[in-house]
Amino acid sequence: MTDQQSNDIKATLSSLYDCLKQGRLKIEPALNAQEVGTVTSVSTGIALVSGLPNVGFDELLDFGNDLYGIAFNLDEHEIGVVLLGEAWRLNVGDEVKRTGRVMDIAVGPELLGRVIDPLGRPLDGIQPPALTKRLPIERPAPAIIKRSPVTEPLQTGIKVIDALLPIGRGQRELILGDRQTGKTAIAIDTILNQKGKNVLCVYCAIGQKASSVAKTLAVLKTNQALAYTVVIVTEGNDPPGLDYIAPYAATSVAEYFMQGGEDVLIVYDDLTQHARSYRELSLLLRRPPGREAFPGDIFYLHSRLLERSTHLNSENGGGSLTALPIIETEGQNMSAYIPTNLISITDGQIYLSPTLFDLGVLPAVDVGKSVSRVGGKAQRDGYRKVASNLKLAYAQFEELENFARFGARLDDNTLSTIEHGRHIRAYFSQSESAPFTVAEQITLLLVLSQRLFDAVPLSDMPKAQESLRAATRNMPEILLTCLENAQNITEDERQKVFSIAEQTLAPFIKQVCAEDRNSEVDRKLTQAEFDKPNKSTHKT
User: Fold this and answer.
1) CB hemisphere CA count around 176 (13 angstroms)
2) How many CA atoms lie within 13 A of 326 on its CB side?
3) How many of the other CB atoms lie within 10 Å of CB of 305?
4) Are 43 and 87 a contacting pair, CB within 8 Å?
5) Range 195-222 burial, b when 16+ CB lie within 10 A, else e
6) Closest by alpha carbon to 249, among 260, 263, 234?
7) What does 231-277 look like in DSSP terms, one character per residue?
8) Catalytic residue among 121, 179, 373, 473
9) Rounded CA gap, 399 and 420, in Å?
10) Alpha-carbon distance 31 to 482, whole Å?
């Protein structure tokens, strides 16, 4: 090594030492106090912790190894913590640290089309989305001054709901019924119908079977609905803590889009499992039980969740959040604790009857026990005019049908009313994952109100409706646009629709006329046989 190289190295090292010395002089050492507690007890879904005197309610606690919990009970000597992971990963004596923040979730448009858990971790086998913004899962509901009335409809594509139980954007409509009656199918069909309508969707599965979630995801993918949907999932084998935070995390994701001026639909499937998980956690933490062993704040659990669904005014972006919570009843008991709580919180309910389901009437919506308290204001004029008397006619039919079962002789007007009601019920029947457009529904409702369907055999009603749907799609563009907007329909436009309907239904009507003639002949023959004198009697 030459002298020149040696001098260069000495100069470089001297410069480096000078930089380190200046940096050391600029650093002012400070103490960073950190509270560290100890786990004193571990149970399924919960843990008891001591040694964190300044912890706050709902504060997120870090147990290490990517395991977190929420401070739930703040007692004098210990803290009850809801675990957000598996309890077997925790041992008595393990350390726990405060994070100084509440539970939050990463939000952003990158979540669309993804399947995540309530902690934001991906479940679809893809890398986590790069998100920079986070929102707490528990947020206060928008103030009244920030809200706007519900004036715009949310089309579900389900005929019986759009006609008789309309839902508005910003409304909370409860879906309840016994298990296996089609509650989730209604919610999924509503999501499918939002394609191309500038409505984003959030589907929250709470404690569902993995097979059920996989089936739902397959339906969304097949119908290209996953592109505008965020799916948040907790499975049946997940800890109850994840079930507890799942709907709140999903609502925060939906609120991010709502605050950006978007219309959002959120489905909670279902809040019965959510309430049961909360009851489990409360009983494990020794909270006093109340009715049906639920804790006293079970009403507040759901009211603070559903009050976040609203329609914001234009000064706050004009977005909306429409909620479809699902509840499972037992033995058609709508007066149980959780169903009555949610009926009083929401703006209406759609009740699915197992009796109608067993009869093959799908969707099995019991119109008499269902109501929409807000959506009627948002329903379009075209629906309101053609469906205004439909609910009354259907109610009269149900009463007369029950009366007719006793075998009473009925006059022609009563028979006509019953026959019309049966065709109304046949009109309400609809296949799963086959939503109807507004124009198709308005056309069918016009034909139904004119009683043109009454001449069609009930067995041919599905085929007749499909033929009329195809004819609707081939209508002139001006008439189709008018029906799609569902505004005031003129008399000329009505006559055009009736003319197309009569031509479309003509093959079915001719068939029923022939059947009627045959049945009339059979009836006369039967009557003649009845009136014929009995020869054996005369012989006697």
Assistant:
1) 27
2) 26
3) 22
4) yes
5) eeeebbbbbbbbbbeeeebeebbebbee
6) 234
7) EEEEETTS-HHHHHHHHHHHHHHHHHHHHTT-EEEEEEE-HHHHHHH
8) 373
9) 13
10) 72
- Residue 357 neighbours by CB distance under 10 Å: 17
For 379, phi then psi, to 5°, come to -65, 140
- Residue 199: its H or E element: strand 199-208
- Per-residue pLDDT of the chain (540 residues), as tens digits, is 577 777 777 778 788 888 877 777 777 767 777 889 999 999 999 999 999 989 999 999 999 988 999 999 999 889 999 999 998 989 999 999 999 999 999 999 999 999 999 999 999 999 998 898 999 999 999 999 999 999 999 999 999 999 999 999 999 999 999 999 999 999 999 999 999 999 999 999 999 999 999 999 999 999 999 999 999 999 999 999 999 999 999 999 999 999 999 999 999 998 999 999 999 999 999 999 999 999 999 999 999 999 999 999 999 999 999 999 999 999 999 999 999 999 999 999 999 999 999 988 999 999 999 999 988 888 988 888 888 888 888 888 988 888 787 767 778 888 888 999 999 999 999 999 999 999 999 999 999 999 999 999 999 999 999 999 999 999 988 888 888 887 777 888 889 999 999 999 999 885 444 444 444 434 433 343 334 444 333 333
Position 68, amino acid: Y
DSSP secondary structure, 72-126, as one string: EEE-SS-EEEEESS-GGG--TT-EEEEEEEE-EEEESGGGTT-EE-TTS-B-SSS
> How far, in Å, CA of 294 to CA of 297, rounded?
8
Measuring CA to CA, which residue among 223, 239, 229 is closest to residue 199?
229
Using alpha carbons, select from 479, 491, 421, 473 the residue that is nearest to residue 451: 421
Burial (CB < 10 A; 0-12, 13-18, 19+), residue 61, is buried
Q: Catalytic residue at 373? A: yes
Tell the burial category of 141 from Cβ atoms under 10 Å away from its Cβ (0-12, 13-18, 19+): middle
The 10 Å CB-count burial string (b at 16+, else e) for 522-539 is eeeeeeeeeeeeeeeeee
Q: Is the peptide bond before 3 cis (omega within 30 degrees of 0)?
A: no
What is the C-alpha to C-alpha distance for residues 449 and 140, in angstroms, rounded to an integer?
46
What are the angstrom distances between the C-alpha of 206 and each of 29, 106, 231, 271?
48, 19, 11, 7
One-letter amino acid of 267: V
User: Per the structure block, which two tokens stand in for 243?
Assistant: 């079930």
Helix/strand/coil for 184 = helix
Q: Degrees (nearest 5) of the Cα angle 173, 174, 175?
A: 120
Which residue, 324, 233, 328, is CA-closest to 275? 328
Contact 287, 172 (CB under 8 A): no
Contacts for 199 with CB less than 8 Å, ≥ 6 apart: 154, 169, 228, 262, 263, 264, 265
Residues paired with 105 in a beta bridge: 135
